[in-house]
Fold this protein.
Amino acid sequence: MKIGIQGVKGSFHDLAASLYFHSEDYEIQPFGDFRSMAKSVSNKELDYAVMAIENTIAGSILPNYALMSEYDLEISGEVYCRIEMSFLVNHGVKIENINNVYSHPMALLQCADFLGQHPHIKLHEAEDTADSARMIKDNKMMDCAAIASHRAAEIFDLEVLEENIETNKENYTRFLILKGRMNGYDQIPEKASLSLVTNHEPGSLADTLMIFKNYRLNMTKIQSIPILGQPYMYSFNIDLVWDDYDNFQKAMNEIRQMSSSLRILGEYKRGNSPSQVETIPVLK
């Protein structure tokens, strides 16, 4: 089984893949950007892809919703990862030796308090946390550090000088497991993600929410997204969970009749909650 991830091995996408597919025999296919990965899934060059969709600090990654729609991808699962940052160096390097640190700009921002304690260290933005770790290892950069996962330290044989350096310890990212359409379902669905465009009438969204209530569907997320080419028109991305799948199906039948557009992005098994997140899995 071939799994696509954004970034290289040791990245947080790699971590998410290892958590979700831990009992499977799989091969990781790294990608430098989300678009090329989405295209490969659509072309059936991959069995699945792992794509970050929202973070408890940074919010939703809206361009990834657009890619899912553009390439007609289906959500088949989800996994939550706690984002723990480590300060990685080549073996033997001390904090006083470090003049530069490399990482993804979001990682640098999320470790601002720690970095503020070392104002002499110059910050350098990179495309990927794990690739920063690989770079300082391959180039034997003895005055440099990388901010990445503990998993990256194991993969690239780097020393963890400091761990858990992120400012906010309640930092979680939700990753979606994506596949091409028409591959069939492989799990009993407990959750769904929708893209909904309501009729342009007063109370249309409220009427939709009342249907959710009537059928005992719990809405775990709702977010409006601008519709390209239609100024000031919006679709709603909605996540729902339920106890009775028949209720979900009945609700969707009613909503289709009263909405301008309804697209089910995926029906899948509920992922682990943040309180159940495993942080450092065993390497495959």
About this structure: Residues 245-258 form the longest helix (14 residues). The chain has three domains: 1-83+170-180, 86-163, 190-268.
